[in-house]
Design a protein that fits this description.
Layout: H1 2-10, H2 16-23, H3 30-43, E1 48-55, E2 66-73, H4 80-85, H5 107-115, E3 116-124, E4 131-136, H6 137-142, E5 152-153, E6 168-176, H7 183-197, H8 199-203, E7 213-216, E8 219-220, E9 243-244, E10 248-253, E11 264-273, H9 288-292, E12 301-305, E13 308-313, H10 326-332, E14 335-341, H11 362-403, H12 412-420, H13 422-425, H14 435-444, H15 450-463, E15 465-470, E16 478-482, E17 487-492, H16 496-511, H17 513-535, H18 545-568
Parallel strand pairs: 1-7, 12-14, 15-17
Antiparallel strand pairs: 1-2, 2-6, 3-4, 3-6, 4-5, 7-8, 9-11, 10-11, 11-14, 12-13, 16-17
Helix pairs in contact: 3-5, 3-7, 16-17, 17-18
């Protein structure tokens, strides 16, 4: 019995080396790991925060990888005693402090070891000197490091005095072994993630904090506002702003664990509608203009805790009442939504100790959806109605252009998609023949001759691929012709297929015009992909029946995938 008691007394709470290795699999990504360092800098009253990504020297790697990351700030710095414990898990001067953006005292270390195996920390207070300590997982594993080293006087090996004058902290991550993304990807994505996550701090709007600059590899990052209302530091200061709705204030009971007095805390819900200039027309949410302004990423909503974003995306299990299916999500990116709460409600938003994720609990989620649903549905209608107006305006404009070609605008949206991508779509054409051009024109406008014939051919070449409808004898549902630098596809309005297709289309249109339009384009593109599959087969090449079918099927699948991506993007 005595032996058992002694044995039990000798057992610690954790096996240090294996515990730390296990913690490397925590629910971080590299961006939330960087965010933990930025949190510390901001809470240290820094106004200048610098990040430098350095490449790894690896000749065998297919692309450049990160070798080391440096974080430096001009905050108040850490006294020697504080520096000694800054890498200790659970040790924080701000533990359970619900007024700041930190709370749990694990983020800095967990974030670091998730990405790398060695962490150096330098810090100095005003009128003080630099002190240094570190953590190394390899040394912990082999037993040469069993405690966090007592800080020693040591100047950083890097020149940082030009932006850290009186006080500040330098953190260096090395032995970087967990980042598999290419160097350039991490660099660019970090700018986006940090610009959106810390936007309130970049603007100087975060309660209790000064305006902050975050500089990555020598360049200030831009703020990204999911509401598209505040243009300060975005790089698009002179553009139209979104129409911001009156904010909704929701008072919610603070859990007893956080407040035994049963007080309520305020949740602020903001929504916006992006300006007309940003939602110019259908299917433009992912074009270059949209990508430069991050509209293509503006899906779901942004949740802020103490002015710091902790979640961005769709709230699970709210569809179709809020975000809806994919077609609705293509519209919702033109709607801004921001939900702000204080740390008193961490439990109600299921905030994790690494500040990555904030999903409201069931009853709160229901209430938020109840508030947002009418706003979202109204905005869906506004956006779609405007797009329908634009489509009608385009139809009027293109009718005049198509008159000479004897082409209707029945498939105007598809024809525009094809025209915009004609060079890429016709790149692998092996079937196009010059002698077919006149044959095509005869189907477009029978009897055309001379200059009229030439004009129509040039007009069709300008389109590249043209879709329309004609009545033909027989039940063949489509008619495809491969010309030189042009192709045409006609639906046979006399076919059984067309009658069934038109009946379904009209039924959908009577209920939802936008979905009907998408359905029409989708059917068009399926047949266009087949046309392209045909055109990629060399008519001079000999195939047996099986090989021909396989080649055609493969080309069709590849062409369809590419053209659908171009449509959606």
């Amino acid at each position: 019995m005595k032996e058992k008691q002694n044995y039990e007394l000798e057992v610690g709470f954790v096996e240090q080396d294996t515990a730390l290795e296990s913690m490397r699999a925590s629910d971080f990504d590299c961006y939330s790991a960087y965010g933990e360092i930025i949190d510390n800098s901001i809470q240290a009253n820094a106004t200048d925060i610098r990040i430098e990504f350095q490449e790894r020297a690896d000749r065998n790697a297919r692309s450049k990888r990160i070798g080391r990351v440096l974080f430096a700030d001009n905050g108040i710095g850490m006294e020697k005693s504080v520096l000694h414990t800054c890498l200790k898990l659970g040790k924080s001067s701000r533990y359970n402090d619900r007024d700041g953006i930190g709370r749990f005292g694990v983020g800095m270390t967990l974030g670091a070891i998730h990405e790398c195996r060695h962490v150096d920390v330098y810090s100095k207070v005003k009128d003080g000197i630099w002190h240094y300590t570190y953590l190394d997982l390899d040394e912990i594993k082999n037993g040469t490091l069993t405690r966090i080293p007592i800080p020693v006087q040591k100047d950083p090996e890097f020149e940082i005095s030009n932006y850290i004058e009186d006080s500040g902290t330098l953190v260096i991550w090395s032995k970087y072994d967990k980042q598999l993304e290419p160097y350039e990807t991490v660099l660019e994505e970090s700018k986006i993630w940090l610009g959106r996550t810390f936007r309130k701090f970049l603007w100087g709007e975060a309660k209790g904090y000064k305006e902050v600059d975050i500089i990555i590899n020598g360049k200030k990052i831009k703020a990204i506002d999911p509401l598209y209302f505040n243009k300060y530091k975005t790089g698009f200061e002179n553009e139209d702003i979104a129409k911001l709705d009156k904010a909704t204030s929701l008072d919610w009971l603070i859990p007893e664990e956080a407040d035994a007095k049963k007080q309520k805390s305020n949740i602020l819900i903001k929504t916006s509608l992006l300006p007309d200039t940003y939602r110019r027309e259908r299917y433009m949410g992912k074009d270059q203009f949209a990508k430069e302004r991050f509209i293509d990423r503006n899906e779901g909503l942004s949740i802020l805790r103490n002015d710091r974003e902790v979640y961005y995306g769709f709230i699970p299990h709210t569809s179709p009442s809020l975000h809806g299916d994919e077609s609705r999500r293509n519209v919702s990116r033109f709607i801004g939504c921001e939900i702000s709460f204080s740390a008193d409600l961490d439990q109600e938003f299921a905030v994790k100790n690494i500040k990555r994720g904030a999903i409201p609990v069931r009853e709160l989620k229901k209430k938020i959806v109840e508030i947002l649903r009418p706003t979202f549905l109204t905005k869906y209608d506004i956006i779609r109605n405007r797009w329908n107006e634009i489509d009608r305006e385009k139809e009027e404009n293109t009718n005049a252009e198509n008159e000479v070609l004897n082409i209707s605008n029945t498939h105007g949206i598809t024809n525009k998609i094809l025209k915009d991508n004609k060079d890429a779509l016709l790149k692998k054409d092996k079937a196009g023949k010059e002698e077919n051009n006149s044959k095509i024109v005869n189907k477009v406008k029978p009897g055309a001759k001379g200059k009229e014939l030439e004009k129509i051919i040039e007009g069709l070449k300008e389109n590249g691929i043209t879709i329309d409808e004609r009545e033909f004898v027989g039940d063949a549902f489509i008619d495809i012709e491969h010309g030189n630098a042009l192709k045409t596809m006609f639906y046979n309005t006399n076919s059984t297929f067309y009658r069934a297709y038109k009946e379904i289309l009209d039924e959908i249109k009577s209920k939802n015009e936008s979905i009907a339009s998408d359905y029409k384009v989708l059917i068009d593109l399926i047949f266009v992909a087949y046309m392209l599959a045909e055109s990629q087969i060399d008519p001079e090449e000999e195939f047996d029946g099986e090989s021909f079918v396989e080649e055609l099927k493969s080309n069709w699948a590849i062409s369809l995938s590419k053209i659908l991506k171009r449509w959606k993007n």
